[in-house]
Amino acid sequence: MSAVQQISVFLENKSGRLAEVTRALADAGINLGALSIADTSDFGILRFICSDPGRAAQVLRGAGFSVGETEVLAVEVPHRPGGLAAVVEALKPLDVNIEYLYAFMRRTGESALVVLRPETAREREVAEALQAAGHRLVGPDEAYDL
Amino acid sequence: MPPRGAGRSRTQLPERRVTMIWDVHHECMSADEREALQVRRLQAMLGRVQGAVPLYRRRLADAGCDPGDIRRLADLAQLPFTVKDDLRDHYPYGMFAVPLDDVVRIHSSSGTTGKPTVVGYTRADVALWAETIARTLCGGGAMPSDILHNAYGYGLFTGGLGLHYGGELLGVAVIPVSGGNTKRQIMIMQDFGSTLLSCTPSYALYLAEVGEELGVDFSKLPLRVAYCGAEPWTEAMRVEIERRLVCKAHNIYGLSEVIGPGVSFECAEQHGAHVSDDHFIPEVINPETGEVLPDGQVGELVLTCVTKECLPLLRYRTRDICRLDHTPCACGRTTARMSMVTGRSDDMLIIRGVNVYPSQIEEVLLQFAVVEPHYLLQVDRRGQLDELTVQVELAPEFVADSVREVESLSRRIAGEIESVLGLSVTVQLMEPKSLARSEGKAKRVQDNRQLS
Fold this sequence. Notes:
The complex is a heterodimer.
Chain A lengths: L3 E9 L4 H11 L4 E8 L3 E8 L2 H10 L3 E13 L4 H9 L6 E8 L5 E8 L4 H10 L7 H5 L2
Antiparallel strand pairs in A: 1-3, 1-4, 2-3, 4-6, 5-6
Chain B lengths: L23 H4 L3 H22 L1 H9 L21 H6 L13 E7 L7 E6 H17 L7 E4 L7 H13 L2 E3 L6 H12 L2 E4 L1 H13 L11 E4 L6 H11 L2 E8 L4 E7 L6 E3 L4 E6 L13 E7 L10 E7 L1 E2 L11 E2 L4 E2 L4 E3 L2 E3 L1 H9 L4 E12 L2 E10 L8 H19 L4 E5 L14 E3 L5
Parallel strand pairs in B: 3-4, 3-5, 5-6, 6-7, 18-21, 19-20
Antiparallel strand pairs in B: 1-2, 7-8, 8-9, 9-14, 10-11, 11-12, 12-15, 13-14, 16-17, 18-19
Helix pairs in contact in B: 2-3, 5-6, 7-8, 8-9, 10-11
């Protein structure tokens, strides 16, 4: 299964930077699905899943941003208490580092998607553990149209 | 028995102590006597370097100069200059005028790129250095009964050991505290009864701040004089140091290429710093043209070392900007006086007493493919200590995915810079193209300190 591509953008903590990113994507007709921002006092990392990651990267690089494209896992999770806990518990025995994780509701409202990036070189192990615990990993096409 | 001076507040001490001039003969010569001495020493020095230092043999030959041509002090202007890059190009010992066997001390300081500047001393040079420091300490009224709290860094930096040997020669009790561990320094000042302090002006203010936080009443301490140098400072800073540490703050000046501290010092008049010009002949030049300027005009200080044996530099361009005054001083000394240094004619910075060249930092940045060599050095003074933040642009190829990766990169770059400069810095990664571009020479430094 081909991987879900997440776009990440390095942003200085300067006003207007996020607006520039969202405007550039909007003008290119790209639809944002899931999004998170990790911030420190000096900078932020914007991460998102969108309808066309290749084009988003191109558009943003063209606008002068420092852009990364990272493969992430997208796990379907039922929308009820304990949904996310089950995913996290499935990973506990692996003693693996999760770089980051964020979750979003899907269009239908019946399930959510958890986007996560395990530490490098352990992605396959994590994917297999999640599937063994009965969780469904979602492919790119499904992820890009949340 | 309590240390001498302990328990006496400053108001009990007389405003003007009888001060000793360390070397009355040399410090109070008539103008004619001094010029004759300087010319004799200059001729001898030229003869030595012409024979012993290949660079000078070439330069003097190219300039068509011979030691015998020097009859008057003004003839010095015919001789070629020496610049810091000459020392770099002959790193480490290529400009020494004596065999290494005769060298008993080596010090170094920052170079413009990569390698540091290396300086050496024979036994006679070490003794000469101590003499110049004894003069310096006496300029502030030091007596053999004093206790010197030496907070200049000991090690390759010339500050620590320079003040140390001079203090011992004068006969003060030297406490080799070196830098850092400020709370302990305050305890030592109180318990050991330091009467003299030697440190950078910014460290003097930092000591004052920490002492105040600890509830120390500096007016109750026996501290009388602080000898402040190794970085530029202002009259406003002097007033503040004197007010908070309740002592006199005397300006001292030096540079390791010439000797270290000991090149010049303030006397009780505090109207310019007396240059030990029987050893280091000062001139002020126009930095663009090299033309020698008359007294009172601001320009670049040039020094000629006429008595040093290991590294006798000829017309060394210091890059420090100041004025000279050859009129006699009310203190009785007739040596030339220089004003406080008001700036640099190059891009060197002094951060917490350490010389920093932007080019050193640029060299490190070029080693990291994920950053562009587009950078800006932000220099701030938070509280009393200087801080350097290196703002550098990420290359568009850099993939920033997690905060941890970005912070790890910042730390790695900062670590490399620290190992080159010997100074801790903060690295701030910036977006591509976020630093202003300029048509001509890039602005590399934003100095936010109010130094003048």
